Amino acid sequence: MYCLFPSASLCGIASMSFEQGHGLQTSSKLVLGAQEADSFRNFKSPSELQQAHALLIKTRTSLRVLPLLRVASVCALTPSFSYAQQIFHHVEQREISMWNHCLRNFVESDSPWDAILLFHQMRRHNVFPDCFTCSFVLNACVKLLDVFHGRIVHAFVVKLGLQFNLVLQNAIVHLYACCGQMNDAALLFDKMPQRDVVTWNTMITQLMKKGDTESAYKMFVEMPERNLRSWTAMISGFAQCGKPKQAVDLFMKMEEVGLKPNEVTLVAVLAACADLGALDLGIRIHSYSDNRGFEGNIQICNTLIDMYIKCGSLKAAYDIFRGMKKRTVISWSAMIQGLAIHGKGNEALELFPEMIRSGMTPNEVTFVGILTACSHMGLISEGRAFFASMTRDYGIIPCIEHYGCMVDLLSRSGLLQEAYEFIKQMPIKPNAAVWGAILGGCKVHKNVEMAEVAMSHLQELDPKNDGYYIVLANIYSEAKRWDDAAKMRKFMRNSGLMKTLGCSSITVKGTVHEFVAGDESHPQSVEIYKMWNQLQVHMRLKGYQPNTSVVLLDMEEKEKEKLLSRHSEKLALAFSLINTQHGETIRIFKNLRICEDCHAAFKLISEIMRRKIVVRDRNRFHCFEDGSCSCMDYW
Ligand code: ZN
Ligand code: ZN
C-alpha cells in the first residue's frame, strides 16, 4: 500500500489510498455523474478538496483529473500545504511550477503580500525556489515597496547561483531603485557583468522620479542602446521635474533619430509645451497625434485641453472638449478651470450643471475651478453656496486650495475683515497661498494694517518668497509711506532676497524671445524702444497717464516713468508688434503678476493697433481686445 494522507483521515477516508483510484482510471468514467464531476473541480477549501479526493478514490478515478492549480491555490497559505505537495508528487507534477503559478496570481491580484507568505511557506516545506519564484516574489516586493523581503530574495538569488541571470538582476535593481535605495541599486548596477536596455531604463526612470535629472541624463547619454522607453522616461522626467525646455528639446532629438512617440511620450511633451507656453509645438504635436490615430484618446485629449488653456488658446481647448465622445471628470474640471482663469467665469459656472446632468460626479479639482471662477468674477454669494454644497452634496472635505479660493474671493471683493475671520476659523493650518491671497486683496483695496498682519504670517511660512515683500512694499508706496517701502527694500537686500526680475517671453516664428525689465540686450532693442515711444504718443492722446504708483522707489516722477516703460511685457509687446503680421494674436508669458500700468497700457494698445493680446501672468490669463480685458480689471 502507498502512503496514506494524514489529513485524509479527517473526512473519514483513512483507509483509502492514492493507488486505488489511479489504477482503475478507464473503468471509472461511467461511475462519475455530472454533479460529482463538478464537486471535484469546484472545491474552495482544503476540506472540500479532501471530499473530492475521497470521491475520486471511491469511484476509482485518477487524481489527475483534479485541477492542480486550484489544488495549489486552495492549499497555498494553509496547513494543508504538504497535502497539496503529496498530490503533486503523486501525479508526478513538478510542484515548483504549481507554486510559481500561484505566486504569479497573487502578485497580479490585490494582495501581493500573499506571494511573500507563500514564499515563506515554500521555504518551510523545503521547496527549492527557481528563477521564476525569485522573479515573482521580487515583483511582489516592488508592489509592496518591501525592501526587507527583497533583500532576502536577493540573498537567495546569490545562494542559488542565479546572480548572473539578467532578468533577475534587473528585477533586483528595479526593486532597490523603487524602494528609494538608489545607492544599492547603483552598486549592483556597477557590478553587473552584463546590462541591457531594461537595466539602464530602470536606473534613469528612478533617478528622474527622485528628481536627479542630471544623473539620469548622464546615464541616458552613456547608455549603449536607447529604445522608446528610454526616451519617454527622460522626456516625462524632465517635464515632471519642472524642466519643460529640456523635455521639448529631447523630444525634437527623438524625432530626429526617427523614433515614433507613443501615448506616454505625447502626454509628457504636451505637458512640457503647456508649461513653456509653446503653442506652435503643441499644435504640431496635436496634428501629429491625430495622424497617429490618437484622436479619440481620452488622456491625450485631456492633456491637449490643458496645453491649449495654458498656452492661452481657450477656443482650441474648448473645441477639443466639445469634440470628445467620452469625457472624464478630468476633462470637465480642466475646462471649468480653464474658463475661470481666462476670465470666462460665467461660462465656467454654466458648464457645471451640464457636467452634473451628464452623470459626472465632481471632485476636489472641479470645485477649485468653480471657486476660482467665482473669485475672478467677484461672485461672493455664489462662491459661498458652492463652498457649502461641496461637502453637503458631494461629501468633499475642503482642502487648502478651496480655503485659498474662498479667502481670495472675499479679499478681492474688499471683505478683508471677513476673510481674516474666515482664516481664523479654518480647521486646517492656513498656508502661504491663503495669506498671500489676503495680501493681494490688501493691495487692491489699499489696506496697510491687514497687509502687515498677513505679512507677519508669510514671513514665517514662506520667508524666501520675495514676491510678498514686493507687494507689501508696493502697498507702502501707494500709501506714500516711502520710509516703510525703503525699509522693506533694505530688509530684502540685507536678507539676501533679491527681487525676482520681471521676465516676459514670446514666440515668433518658432523662436522664443525673452525680455527682462530694462532689457537692452536684444538685437532689435533700438527699434523696440522706438516702437514703444510711438505707442505712448497714441496712448496719451487717448488719455493714458503712466501709473507711477506701482514703481517701488522714492524717486523723481520722470525717472519712474522711464522705469515703468521698460517693464518686460511692454518690451515683448513692442517687439511682437514689429515682427508679426497684422491680425495675428500676440501671446506673452510673464513670470510675475502684470502690473496695473502695463494692464492699462495693453488695453489701449489692443484698441489702437486692433490686435488681440493674450498675457499669461503668474496667476491667470488676460485677453486684451478692443480696449478691454477679459479679467474686467479684477485680478
Ligand atoms: Zn508693468
Ligand atoms: Zn486683465
Concise overview:
The protein is mainly alpha-helical and 635 residues long. Helices cover 64% and strands 4% of the residues.
Description:
There is one protein chain. The protein is mainly α. Among the domains are: 8-93, no CATH class; 211-326, Tetratricopeptide repeat domain (Serine Threonine Protein Phosphatase 5, Tetratricopeptide repeat, Alpha Horseshoe); 503-629, no CATH class. Helix content is 64%, strand content 4%. It has 34 helices and 6 strands. It has helices at 18-23, 25-28, 34-41, 46-58, 68-75, 81-90, 95-108, 113-124, 131-144, 147-159, 166-178, 182-191, 197-209, 213-222, 228-240, 244-256, 263-276, 279-291, 298-310, 314-323, 329-341, 345-357, 364-377, 380-394, 400-412, 416-424, 432-444, 448-461, 466-478, 482-494, 525-541, 557-564, 568-579, 596-608; strands at residues 503-508, 511-516, 586-590, 613-616, 621-625, 628-629. Strands 2-1-3-4-5-6 form a 6-stranded mixed beta sheet, covered by helices on one side. Strand 1 (503-508) and strand 2 form a beta hairpin. The chain is elongated. The chain starts with 17 loop residues before the first helix and ends in a 6-residue tail after the last strand. Residues 1-30 have low confidence and may be disordered. Bound molecules: zinc ion (ZN) (2 copies).
